[in-house]
Amino acid sequence: MSFQITEQFFNIFVIGWTFLSLVSLPTVLNLNREIVPKLIPPKKNINPGFILPGLLSIIVFATVFLSGNHAKTEITWIFFSFWIIHFTVKIVFNLINPSHHETQIANTKMLSAIVSINALINGYCLGWLWPAYAVSWMQNMAFISGSLILGLGFLIQITANIRMTPKKNETDALDSGLHKIVFCPGYLGEILQWGGFAMITWNSSAAAAFCWMLATLLAQATSQKHKYLLQFPELPATRKALIPFIF
Residue 182 pairs with which residues in a beta bridge? Predict the structure, then answer.
C-alpha cells in the first residue's frame, strides 16, 4: 500500500460502515428467510459457503496489516493471530461439514464484501493508523475481560462444530449440549469472539467488525433455524436461534 488516508476520513468511513450494519439488518434477515426453501435438502458436496469470504478476509487483512508502517508489538501480533486463526477455523469446518453451512451459499458475494471491508479497515487501523499497543495493555481490564470472552467464544464454537461433524447423528447433535438451548451455538461462539476482539483492541474498526458479524450471524442463524425445523419437525420451534432466551 503506497498511500495513507487521513484519520478523519477513516473515522467517518468506519462510523458510516457501522451505521450501515445496523440499518441493513432487517433486509438481511428477510433475505435469509426467503432463501431457506431453496436449501432443502442439503447438498453433501463441498460448496463455496464461507471458503471464499474466509480466504478473502485473511488475504486482505494480512496484506494491509503487514504492509503498514506502524511498529508491530506483541499485542498487535496477538490481534493478527486471532484474525487469521478465526477465519482459518471457519474455513476448515466448512470443508469438514459443508451441509451445515449451506445457508451461506446464497449470500457468499455479500458476505465476501462484508468481511473484506472489515478486514481492510481493521488491517489498516492496526497496521497503519492506531498507535502501537504497549505490553502494559495486557493488564488493562478491557483486555483481560475481552480475552476471557474471546476464549469462551472460541471454546463454544469449536465444541458446537465438532458436534455437527458428518460422523455424528445430526438429530442427536441438535438435541444435546448447547444445541438444546439454541439452534446455532457455533454462531453464538463467534459473536462472543468478535465481542471479545472489540474489547481487547478497543478501537472503532473492531467495533464495526463486531456489529457486522452480529448482523450477519443473526441472519444466518435465523435461516439455519428455519432449515432445521423444515428438516426435523419434531424439534421445538420455541428454541431460540442464536441468543439464549432472547433471539
Answer: 240
* Number of domains into which the chain is organized: 1
Question: Which range marks the domain in which residue 185 is found?
Answer: 26-231
Q: Is residue 13 part of a domain?
A: no
The pLDDT tens digits for 110-142 are 888 999 999 999 999 999 998 889 999 999 999
Q: Which residues contact 35 (CB under 8 A, 6 or more apart)?
A: 103, 106, 107, 223
Q: Is 4 part of any domain?
A: no
In our burial notation (b when 16+ CB lie closer than 10 A, e otherwise), range 90-108 reads: bbebbebbbbbbbbbbbbb
Give one DSSP letter per residue of 86-124, joined into a string: HHHHHHHHHHH-GGGGGGGSTTHHHHHHHHHHHHHHHHH
The answer as to whether 240 is a domain residue is: no
Hey, how many other C-beta atoms are within 10 angstroms of the C-beta on 178? 17
pTM score, whole prediction: 0.88
Does residue 170 sit within a domain? Answer: yes
